[in-house]
Amino acid sequence: MTLYATRLASMIGQLTDCLCDLLASEGAGPTCFCGVVPGETPAWDYCGECSGDNCGMGFIVVQTVFPSNAFPGAVEFAKCEAPLAASLQVGALRCAPTIGEGGELPDEGEMLEATLGLISDMGAIHKAIACCGFREYAIGAYTPLGPNGGCAGGAWDLTVGLDG
User: Fold this and answer.
1) Which residues, 6 or more positions from 36, have their beta carbon under 8 angstroms from its beta carbon?
2) Dihedral pair phi/psi, residue 17, rounded to 5°
C-alpha cells in the first residue's frame, strides 16, 4: 500500500472503532453490522434485525480522494507533491416503523421513538468524528437517509487530510 493508502486505512480503522462503540453506548444501541463498506453508498441490506433485538448498521464510505493544497478544498491543477484529502460519509441506519400486516400505520409513539433513536445516533456519530483524534478534518452537513425498506438513518460528511 502507498503511504496515503496506509494513512487512510489507519484513520478509517480508528474511526470505525469509535463509531461502533459510540453507537452502542450513546446512540440508539448496538448495531448488527458496523464497519467500512465499499462503493458509493452503503448497501441497505445490512440494516435489519439480528440477535439480541438489535437492528441496523453503522457505516463508513470512502466517497472521494483528491489533491488538496489548501485543506479542505481540492486543487484544480495538482502537482506531484500535492497532499491528498479524503471525503467520507459516516452514518447509521436503523429499523424504522412500517405498515403492519393488517395495513395499520405505525402510531405516534413508535414514530417518536424511532426519531429520537436517529437523533441519538446523529450525536454519537458526530462525537465519534470529533473525538477520534484526526489531525486535520472538516465536518460537513448531516443528511437524513430514507426511509427505505423499513430502515431510516442519516450520515455526516467528513473530509480528512492524509498528509501526516
Assistant:
1) 12, 16, 59, 60, 61, 62
2) -60, -50
Instruction: Please give the residue range of the domain that contains residue 63.
Output: 3-161
Tracing cell 463509531 back to the chain, one arrives at 19
The terminus-to-terminus CA distance of the chain in angstroms comes to 16
Q: Are 133 and 106 in contact (CB under 8 A)?
A: no
Angle among Cα 42, 98, 23 to the nearest 5 degrees reads 45
How does pLDDT run across 99-114, given as a tens digit for each residue?
888 888 989 999 999 9
Residue 39's CATH number: 3.30.2000.10
Position 6, amino acid:
T
Judge if pTM exceeds 0.85.
yes
d(CA 61, CA 89): 5
Kindly report, residue by residue over 14-30, the tens digit of the pLDDT. 999 999 999 999 999 99
- 72: closest CA among 134, 131, 127, 19? 134
- Tally of domains within the chain: 1
* Residue 120 contacts residue 31 (beta carbons within 8 Å): no
Q: Would you state the pLDDT for residue 1?
A: 66
